[in-house]
Amino acid sequence: FHSTPTTDPNPPPPPNHDRRVDSYTELNADEWLKRIHHILIKRTMAPSKQLGGSRGGSLLTLVMCVTCVIVGYILGSTRSNAMSLVGNMGGQASQTEVKVSQIHTMASNTTIPQAISTSTGSWHDVVKEIIPENLLPSYAPDKLLFPISRSMLRQSRPIVGNTERLHAYLKKLRSGTCTFVLFIGGSVTAGHNGGGPTNAYPKHFMDWVNEHYPCKLPNGTGGRHEYTKTHAGESRSNFLFWSGVTSVEKFDLAVLEFNVGDAFQDVLPQALEDKGEAGKTKEYIGSWYFEAVVRRLLLMRKPDPIAIVTFNADYMGLIWSQLQAANARKVLFRSDVEPQNLFVSSMYGIPVFSAVIWMLPLASKRGTEMQNNRTTYTYSTPNWHSDSCCHPRRQGGHHILSLVLAYCMLEEEKTMLSHNEFDTLEAERDFTLDEPPLLRDPLYLSPEEDEMYIRNSNTFSGVDFADPNGEAKWKDAIVINEGWRWYADNKDNDKFGFIANGTEGGQHIAISLNGEHYGKVEVVFVVSYENFGIALAWFGDGNVDEETNCNEEAKKHQTHRLVARWEFQASLPKNEILKESLPKDQKKMLHICLTPPDKHHKGPDNKFKLLGVKVF
């Protein structure tokens, strides 16, 4: 466990443990203030006869007080300045100033005030410490949405977690090995409304990795650190379409970004036990799926154990608006998923990097009105978001997220290089690195659910229409297709699905499915606030009269109504378990038919976007 870290060419000097040094210079400003305070009180309270009479005593007392103030000020300031210069990288110094008036106040109140610090230089100096010179133009002060302080960045590590896996990844970076990163996230990771994938934080972060840690291929030629993103969104859809993760042949680091998408999860059809009242809440459901994803990753080898980081990149903005204030008070954590992700991450020792942990309190600390005032308040929610939901702006937003990731990586690297055998104990070791891995008992999954979805997570069958490269895998399973098309319907051309669109309805698709052990059939589709309608699903055979409208055919069967609309101004996957089962060793046709718009329909289009069907 206590492996030898990579040798630092410029190791820090050993700490000075000898406190017997002639050490008036070792005292900081506070210690000097304490000494001055002691002398002031003692001398002013002493009887004047001890000092050779009242007149002589007063004069001597005055001389001693002035001397102590001057010496304390000089030495205290000198020590504070020296420590500030050592502790601030990039030459950014701070000065400590202690005023005589403060000493008088201290003497009368018998309390020790903290020294007042004033910084020199620019807030952008901290950015220069993190970002290589070649990339700095993209992180210039006028390119970022708002100033970033060292204090903000320090808050970006709310959970340190177990860092063995992360250290293994950092050692690969430092050795010049080319690595691969898998970003498992939703629309924020995809750069939605922020310029798309080419302007999203994964791209900027990987540019930083390549600049800061250049790598070479096994043949000695120059290479690059590569990355990709899963096609699924929140933890639930990644759980359902796990092939998006398993199909990646090799990766070294997984970045989990679910802080927005997991706020919309409202059903848990995979539950194999009664979860009680808590199991009906979004917080419980989101935690169940998030834990399932974490457990699968901890058991995975690609081919080495994967470094895992939870990245809380953004928050739901709409619920913080003035119009939603009354409803917001009825929602636990106000739809911010971070508290529940922090709990799960901490229990599994997963390091957490977060922009939300400091950004959301900063946005809301001046009240709801100011939080939603883009023109007046720099850190307001609309100044950060490009829409009413949850997506960083095109210019500067994703660079701030990249900056947070880069800072956290550098801070952990510093810790790794200062590592010694007493920093951690055997009990803290990551037992999931063992062979076979020792995984803690689940927090939310039952033993049966863990056995089914985690230990044997490959025992699924079905079709995945969300995979941009998956057409060859499901092509032969489509038995009937009348009016459905497989394509990406977003402007970034990366969100695929089988789509029907028609104001009269009647678009019909039939899919051949094989049964599995539990016989559960799950349909995954997109829900949105406008232009999306309703489809009917049922099991039957392939003998359907093509002249007959599928809505008429549906009347002959027991159907399941799939409603693809909701009130939230967001488009997200939804999953439903069909009423009819499909036991193992059976084969059936699943028919899905788009219905005409009803009176509650909104928008000129009538769409249904099918993402896939899973049988387990």
Rounded to the nearest angstrom, the distance between the terminal CA atoms is 39 Å
Instruction: List unreliable stretches of 5+ residues.
Output: 1-66, 68-119
Task: Give a count of the beta strands, DSSP E runs of length 2 or more.
Answer: 20
Structural class: alpha+beta
Mean pLDDT: 82
Principal-axis shape? globular
Radius of gyration: 31 Å
Tally the helices: 19
Biggest sheet descriptor = 6 strands, antiparallel
Q: In percent, how much strand structure appears in the residues?
A: 15-25%
Relative helix content:
25-40%
Word description of this protein:
- This protein has 616 residues and is of the alpha+beta class.
- Helix content is 31%, strand content 17%.
- It has 19 helices and 20 strands.
- It has helices spanning 29-45, 54-87, 100-109, 125-130, 150-154, 164-174, 201-212, 235-240, 243-246, 282-299, 325-328, 338-347, 356-364, 368-371, 381-384, 397-417, 447-455, 471-474, 550-554; strands spanning 94-97, 116-119, 180-185, 215-216, 222-223, 226-229, 253-257, 307-312, 352-354, 461-464, 478-482, 484-488, 496-501, 508-514, 521-527, 534-540, 560-563, 572-577, 587-594, 607-615.
- The strands form five sheets. Strands 10, 12, 13, 15, 18 and 20 form a six-stranded antiparallel sheet that branches.
- Helix 1 runs antiparallel to helix 2 (54-87), helix 7 (201-212) runs parallel beside helix 16 and helix 10 (282-299) packs parallel to helix 12 (338-347).
- It is globular, with a radius of gyration of 31 Å.
- The two termini are 39 Å apart.
- Mean pLDDT is 82; it is low at 1-66 and 68-119.
